[in-house]
Every structure is written in C-alpha cells, then in structure tokens.
Specification:
482 residues, mainly alpha, Glutamyl-tRNA Synthetase, domain 2, 4 domains, two-stranded parallel ribbon, elongated
C-alpha cells in the first residue's frame, strides 16, 4: 500500500438487490478514489447470517461490473488484504475483541433475552445498563467454561462528548451518555456490523469512509474503537439521504429502488449512473449530462450537498431520452431488438427501419412496444383525423387528394423514404397545396393515428408498397362512405 494513497471501499450486505442508495455510495467512493489516484475496494459484509439472500453476492458483483464500477480489490479479483467477505474473516474479529477486553474497553455479557426485554424503556428504547461490566474475571471465565451463551459489548464512556469532523457536514458532536454499550461479538461468534467494519477498514487500509447521513451520529462509536486500539481515524464523508418526496425516503418498496428495477423499466446503464451521481452532488459548472470519464474528472467533495436528494423519475426519463437520441444507431438497434420481439410487430418489419423511426422519440426502452404496436392495429378509424387546420387538411381535401396519392404511389419506380418523399412533395407542388397537407393525409390514411413515430414516407417505406396501397384504398373507402 502506497503511503498516503486514498483507499475507499463499498461494503454492501448481501440481502437483496443493490439499492440506489448503495449504488450511489459505491459510485461516489469509486469516483473519489479514481480522482485522487487511489484504490477502490469491494467488501461483502455478511455478518448478519439471518438476513442473507441467496445469489445476492453474485448479483452485487454483476451489478458493479455492469455499472462500470470496477474495483481494484474484492472477493473475485483478490488483493493483498483479503479475504474480502466478512464471514471468512471470523477469527480476526474475536482476536481484536479480546484485546479490547484486556484494555477494559469491552466486556463479556451473559444477560438473557428476557432480562434485556425488561430493562426500563427510556425515550422509546431500552438502553443496556452495563450490568455485566461488574463481573470479575474469575466469574466471567467460569461462566464461559460452563458453556453459558455470551456476547461481547463495547464499554462506552458515560461522561463527556465525542466529536469528529465530517468533510461535508463539519463538526459532529454526541454526548457520551447517549451512547449504548453496543454488541461487538454476537452469541454465534459473528461480529456485528459496528465492530467488523472498523476492524476491516483498519486492516484493509481504508482511510476514506463514504456513507449515508444515517451514520452521522453513530460514527463516534466507531471512533472510540479506533481510539481504543490507537489507530488513526479515517476521513469521513457522509452523503445526504435519497428521498421519494420531501417526507419519505426512497425504500425497497418503491418501484424504482434498485438498479435492476431501473433496468427493467427500460433505462440504460449510462443514464442511470449519470442520474445517480446527481442525487446529492453537482459539478461546479452545473452540467447534467456527463460521460463516466467526465464524472471522474469533475467529481469533488465540495460538490456534495447537505440537503436531501429527491428521486425524480421524470428527470431520469428525460436524461435517458438524451442518451438514446445521441446513441449510435447500431447500439440502439441492439438494445431495442428484445423489445421489438415482445411487440405486435415482432418479425414482421425491418428492425433497422423501425429503430430509425423510434430512436429519437423514445425515452425508455419499455416504451418501444407501445410505439410500434399501432402498425398491427390498423382498422376502421375516425375520419375526423383528416381535419387539421394547421396542416391545411380536411375530409374534403382527403377525398380529393387521396386518389391522386394512390395513383402516384402505384406508379413509383423506387420504394424508399427519399423517393416517396420526393413524389409526394412533387404532387403537392403540382396541385399547388402545402406539402404538409399531402403528407398529413397520407400518414393518417396508412396509420389511422393522429400521432405516430415516423412521418408518412417513413411509415410507407416500412410497410412496403403492397401494404401501403392496401391501407390507402381502405381509407379511401372509409371516406367515400360519408
């Protein structure tokens, strides 16, 4: 480990999908490490065995890589400070807990569940009363040897104030009398999060800790552990919460709470990462659309806000639409194909032409079936759609010009978008009418819809000559019946 090199970490619990808040922590930790030439480490904190969800670790590793957050050290890439899964480091924690006991900074506790439940309720919580701190070494050893279950608790000071400086929120102070004697080692021998993350951060050389504001007031507990061991405290950077609205935090119950949720909703990973980086941080130039490389260049602690960030899916969709519009057409076709396969037009049209029509009009990939299904839903429609004053179109004009549109299209030699456009605009010039009126009549007659992705000639090119003429004749018949 290089001297003074920044080492950040992301330490998720494998309890389900990667929540947006967790992904933001990972993203900020990654960006800060890379901005400073440091290292970014992934560690899995699975000490709470009761909450583990099958395949969660694999999901976390997969999501990190999909999002472009490639860690320098971690469970599947190794490193000099492994193992990088806490359950595989179990013996380390007990060793350090015993050191604290020798220093008087921790003690064995044999209190039963029943006794703990009968402790006096202070302000809605039952604070442990240090009952077992008074036990002699002999009594403690006797009870351990007899097989009596125990935990190891941190011996918190009861007077004074614990303070530290956070890089975003400044000085944070907590009265020591408010701190409870936290459990460090549980009765199953596993460490609690409070203890394991301090031990691992020190042993792995983590010197910058980034996490949510929910840890602001509990950080003094961790600092007391650093101080008890004589270790240097890390730099703390706490990030504002991500809210669903002004009153409610974004939770796992919300439909857009995880990276997987957003992917399933049709958002692309570049837009997701871009949007998440803005949830609590902004660059000096207030830019909103940024490449991953630009995020690394622009990221700074100074840009992290203290105020809560509101998750605005409307803004995410807008940003996603920008990415789609500016995307290489081949890449969009690759992303759109699975959604076209789920639509009513699956396998019936040229996907390249379809993708070209919808790319600039798509904000989320899940919109694609809805945008193209109309091609297979053509049937009797309201002929009042031909009435459009802005386009100089009317039912009478449609009756007058539709036969001429059919005639020129029947006799066209090359059937493609450019040729179709030329022949229809030539017709408009010959008839001394606005070309927009001729194109409006054509589009309504072949789609039966007031608005469609793609104009008249794009749709005609896509449908092909036979189907286009069939629809034009159908529409002419509708008009002639009134």
């Amino acid at each position: 480990m290089e001297k003074n090199q920044v080492r950040t970490r992301f330490a998720p619990s494998p309890t389900g999908y990667l929540h947006i808040g967790g992904l933001r922590t990972a993203l900020y930790s990654y960006l800060y490490a890379k901005k400073t030439g440091g290292k970014f480490i992934l560690r899995i904190e699975d000490t709470d065995q009761n909450r583990l969800v099958a395949d969660s670790i694999d999901n976390i590793l997969k999501t990190m890589k999909e999002a472009g957050l490639f860690y320098d050290e971690g469970p599947d890439v190794g490193g000099d400070y492994g193992p990088y899964i806490q359950s595989q480091r179990k013996n380390e924690y007990l060793k350090y807990a015993k050191i604290l006991i020798e220093k008087g900074e921790a003690y064995y506790c044999f209190c039963t569940k029943e006794r703990l439940e009968n402790l006096p309720d202070e302000k809605g919580a039952r604070k442990y009363d240090k009952h077992c701190l008074a036990l002699s070494k002999e009594e403690t050893q006797k009870r351990i040897e007899s097989g009596e279950p125990f935990v190891i608790r941190q011996n918190m000071p009861t007077e004074g104030i614990s303070s530290y400086v956070d890089a975003v929120f400044g000085e944070i102070s907590v009265k020591n009398e408010e701190l409870e004697d936290n459990i460090l080692i549980k009765s199953d021998g596993m460490p609690t999060y409070n203890f394991a993350n301090v031990i691992d951060d020190h042993l792995m050389g983590i010197n910058v800790v980034m996490r949510g504001t929910e840890y602001l007031t509990s950080t003094p507990k961790y600092n007391l552990l650093y101080d008890a061991f004589g270790w240097k405290r890390p730099m703390y950077i706490h990030m504002p919460p991500i809210m669903r609205d002004k009153e409610h935090k974004l939770s796992k119950r919300d439909g857009a709470a995880s990276y997987e949720d957003l992917i399933e909703k049709g958002y692309i990973k570049e837009a997701i990462i871009n949007y998440i980086v803005l949830l609590g941080w902004s660059p000096k130039n207030d830019r909103e659309k940024m490449s991953f490389e630009e995020m690394q260049q622009l990221f700074s602690i100074e840009g992290i806000n203290r105020s809560p960030a509101i998750f605005d899916e409307v803004k995410l969709k807008w940003l996603n639409g920008l990415y789609i519009k500016e995307m290489d057409s081949d890449k969009f076709l690759h992303l759109a194909a699975p959604y076209l396969d789920k639509s009513k037009v699956a396998g019936k049209y040229d996907y390249v032409k379809l993708a070209k029509i919808i790319q600039g009009r798509t904000e989320a990939l899940t919109e694609i079936p809805e945008k193209v299904n109309f091609l297979e839903e053509f049937d009797k429609y309201d002929i009042n759609l031909f009435e459009n004053a802005k386009q100089k179109s009317s039912i009478e004009n449609a009756k007058k010009f539709l036969p001429k549109i059919i005639y020129v299209l029947q006799n066209i030699s090359t059937w493609d978008n450019a040729s179709l456009y030329n022949v229809l605009t030539d017709l408009a010039a010959q008839e001394d009418v606005k070309k927009s009126g001729i194109l409006w009549i054509t589009r309504i007659a072949i789609s039966g819809k007031e608005s469609t992705p793609g104009g008249a000639t794009e749709l005609a090119d896509l449908l092909g000559k036979e189907e286009t003429l069939k629809r034009l004749l159908f529409s002419l018949d509708l008009l002639n019946k009134v």
